[in-house]
Amino acid sequence: MISRQLPILASGVLFGAGLTLGGMTDPARVRGFLDLFGNWDPTLAFVMGGAVAVMAIAWLVQPKLARPVFADAFALPSRRDLTPKLIGGSALFGVGWGIAGLCPGPGFAALVIEPMSAAIFVAAMIAGMFLVRLAEGNA
Amino acid sequence: MTLPGFPDAAPLAGLGGGALIGLAAALMLLGVGRIAGVSGIAARATGISNSSLPISSAWLFLVGLPLGALAVVAISGPVEPSFASPLFLAAAGLIVGIGTRLGSGCTSGHGVCGMSRLSPRSLAATATFMAAGIATVAVMNALGLEVLK
């Protein structure tokens, strides 16, 4: 149990450090990237590119492992169908992302950078998630 | 290092930060066999979603995010970010929460983990939320809405 929890904590710490180093805890940077038709700041593309490049290597290694190093089995998404719910939900997410320049990861990481602002965002986000669960009838 | 034409960009810090995020996601995948998707993990931590990920593990990951941020701030000095006003933050948070549940993920799960796997759902989701984010900022700018302090 401990051997499984430690890598998860380490992953969170690395993730939060990467977001902060990459400037993603600053909404001005994120909105600067989304401001494609204005004063565009390409930094987020470098963050995304760096992350995708490293993670692509991990996906090449994954099929060679019979099971994860610290766990019994892989638990990975397998769906490939494009649905209106996927696209509509992603579009909504993009609108919220554009309004405040925050997505879930930086929201949590920024709790130590600008606590009140980040807490308002995170609390509202959890409320939004709960609303979906209510609407879907505890699915 | 600066990019020609983009004096405000931080390409090296961006690449370094991105590599750390990639390592974090790789550790999650190869170490514990899961996707490092922050919205999904947040929904699991709060009991909103059911999955085989223990709730305690979900919380540990979420607690790690600000700890990692603290470490970077401690090393590289304080950052002076600009955040939106409480009303905009609340509206944005609510929409992000609803959208990420309906869309099954966010920038981390779809953008980093899914795109690098060439998942068709994640490629479509990422293209969609990028386009929607760009359109949102463009419309707000056209309306003269200054949200960041």
Explain what this protein looks like in three dimensions.
The complex is a heterodimer of chains A (139) and B (149). Chain A is mostly helical and 139 residues long. Chain A has helices at residues 2-21, 27-34, 43-61, 84-100, 104-109, 115-135. Helix content of chain B is 67%, strand content 0%. In chain B, helix 2 (38-45) crosses helix 3 (55-76) and helix 5 crosses helix 6 (120-142). Chain B has helices spanning 11-32, 38-45, 55-76, 86-102, 107-114, 120-142. Chain B has 6 helices and no strands. At the A-B interface, helix 1, helix 2, helix 3, helix 4 and helix 5 of A face helix 1, helix 2, helix 3, helix 4 and helix 5 of B.
Question: What would you say about this model in short?
Answer:
Chain A is an all-alpha fold. Chain A contains 6 helices and no strands.
Whole-Å distance between the termini of chain B?
A: 27 Å
Q: Tell me the Rg of chain B in angstroms.
A: 17 Å
Shape summary of chain A: globular
Give me the oligomer status: heterodimer
Largest interface: A-B, 116 and 113 residues
Sum up the overall morphology of chain B in one term.
Answer: globular
Please, what is the average pLDDT of chain A? 96
Give the biggest beta sheet of chain A: none
Number of helical segments of chain B? 6
Count of β-strands of chain B:
0
What are the segments of chain B in which pLDDT stays under 50 over at least 5 consecutive residues? Answer: none
Largest sheet of chain B: none
Low-confidence stretches of chain A: none
Computed CA radius of gyration of chain A, to the nearest angstrom: 17 Å
Structural class of chain B: mainly alpha
How many helical stretches of chain A? Answer: 6
List keywords for this structure.
heterodimer; A: mainly alpha; 65% helix; B: 149 residues; mainly alpha; 67% helix; 0% strand
